[in-house]
Amino acid sequence: ETSLTGKYSDVEGNNHMTRSIGLIRSQEPSYSEDLTGSRCSLEGSRPIGQVDKHILLLVHGVGNAGPEITDELVKLLRKRLDETTLDIITVMLVRNCKLTPADVEFIQPSGSPATELMIYSLPPYCVSWLPAVAHYLRQNLLIFLHIPKYTDSNTAHHFKHYFHLDYELADGDIYLYNKPGGQGTGGKGIACIALSFVDVQGRPVQVAAQECSGLENCSPPLHPEHFEE
């Protein structure tokens, strides 16, 4: 018979982390009165990137642990911990708390590709009006999306825009979707959404502010037939 012991313990050194940063949020001390409320006040005094505790899973038995423990049980524990982490971060974002580097890593793991990629083609006549299109698109996105806030001013610890390799552009056109969930509202979730304007080759296009010194320098007016295409 195989017995299983799981406990929280302090781990020193460079021990291997099975889930890396994603576990950190559930490793923090829990406060019965208000976990997320006290977390906001603690982040200012806590060193950035500090890991307080790890989770140590010990398996004892007469033989090596089988896949039902090394794979299935570990996956189940990771899922439960991720769900707990998600619950805490969603409530935290509702209270307008700032994201720590650990939060950013949990939402957007380093080097991970986008889970969904959506491409929309604009009509050719919109090219001349691209600054206006970009302005109103961003304005409408902010109706249900949010601009992320961070505890660390170092952009290396912010969400990344993988179309933009320059760190100076890392925060540009990046939004955060947060759905805490609840009765009658469906599931909960968090998403990092990156917006890009690209050319036909998929290369990013910088949309600058439109300047018109005179009517002759402005874009041509729209015509009714444009909207019939």
Automatic annotation (TrEMBL):
Query: What top-level branch of life does the organism fall under?
Result: Eukaryota
Q: Which GO terms describe its cellular component?
A: peroxisome
InterPro entries in the record, alphabetically?
A: SZT2 (IPR033228)
Q: What is this protein called?
A: Seizure threshold 2 homolog
Q: Which organism is it from?
A: Nothobranchius kuhntae
Corresponding gene?
A: SZT2
